[in-house]
Amino acid sequence: MHLFVAKFNEFQSDSNDQEGKEGFVTNQVNRKMRTGLPIEDHAHTIYTRAMYEKFYNELFESGKYTIKSKIGQDEYVLTDARADMEDAAAYIHVRLQGTDRVTCECGLFEHMGMLCRHALKVLVHLDRQEIPPGNILHRWTKDCVERSLSEESKSSLIVHNDKLRKKMLLDKVFEIANREATLSETAFHQAMDAITGSSSPDPVLANSDYPNILTATFTGQLQPTACPPRTILGGRPPNTGLKS
């Protein structure tokens, strides 16, 4: 059992490190838009780096489809531009549910939580600027980790995980540094005082006699202690060599 617990903790720590690296790359590396569509910019804003790449692939593939007809006010029929028009299986039906959600019979969103190329084709055709809120799966967004943790569980993790505390502090520093708003002088000094205070020595060492090891009292003043005696190396003395 103890081997299982040790391996599980190792796996969890490795998973957290990989997630932290991916989150850092997502927040710090700005990717260039490749289509120029507003909906792509919105996906880049809300999705993680890996999820954005999948979204871009679907958006790119949507160019292969054409809107064949429209049924009513909220249903569109799409087909592959290169497919045989007489094949009934080549037609894909996409239905709009107001402005909050879009569904497609291919079932990609229900399978992995991302819009398919057929739905994106309809949204681009309608000049939608953003992904519908009902089609944004929270688990693929950048702020998933922060919002998924409750305040109680987050505080518990912070207390018992020094690496997580430092990671969250670093993320917050990058977030503040990348803001366009001006940082006030009062907030700057408060932050610097907090960081300086957190780097103070351990209270246990501060209250112990550790400083007395480094200094000694001499004639009422604190003087540094002398260096330890130099170690004499072994070997033959230099004056015992053979004389010619």
> Pairing-aware structural class of the strands and helices?
alpha+beta
- Largest sheet entry: 4 strands, antiparallel
Mean pLDDT: 76
Radius of gyration: 32 Å
Number of helices: 11
Portion in beta strands: 5-15%
Overall outline: elongated
Give the termini distance in whole angstroms: 75 Å
Give helix and strand order, one letter per element, not per position. HHHEEEEHHHHHHHHEE
Quaternary state, please?
single chain
Summarize the amount of helix as a percent range.
40-55%
Widest beta sheet: strand line-up: 1-2-3-4
Low-confidence stretches: 148-152, 204-224
Number of strands: 6
Mind explaining what this structure looks like?
- The protein is an alpha+beta fold and 244 residues long.
- Helices cover 48% and strands 13% of the residues.
- The protein contains 11 helices and 6 strands.
- It has helices at 2-28, 38-46, 49-61, 108-112, 117-125, 144-148, 151-160, 162-177, 185-198, 203-206, 210-214; strands at 65-71, 75-80, 91-97, 101-104, 215-218, 221-224.
- It has a 4-stranded antiparallel sheet, with helices on one face.
- Strand 1 and strand 2 form a beta hairpin.
- The longest helix has 27 residues, at 2-28.
- The protein is elongated and about 105 Å long.
- It starts with a helix and ends in a 20-residue tail after the last strand.
- The model is unreliable at 148-152 and 204-224 (pLDDT under 50).
